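The pair is quoted verbatim underneath.

:::
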Amino acid sequence: MRSEIFGLQRFAQQGRNLGETHRIARATSHTATSFPRQRSNSHTLRELLRYIGVQSSNGYDISPAAELLLDSFICFVSRTCG
């Protein structure tokens, strides 16, 4: 969207300017990684899947949002685990 406002050349220049002003810190052994958070998110999603499964097996209708969550989780697991 910004490329439409600035124009393509101005947008590219803005990207270069941002790249020049930001520094990347090297990771150390003490630096936290995203893996613990990813494990926590995966655990939470598995709990939600279990809950949705129980609700479904007890005769409750599953909302379209819950179906989307199930489909998205299956796609996520298939990409990250295999």
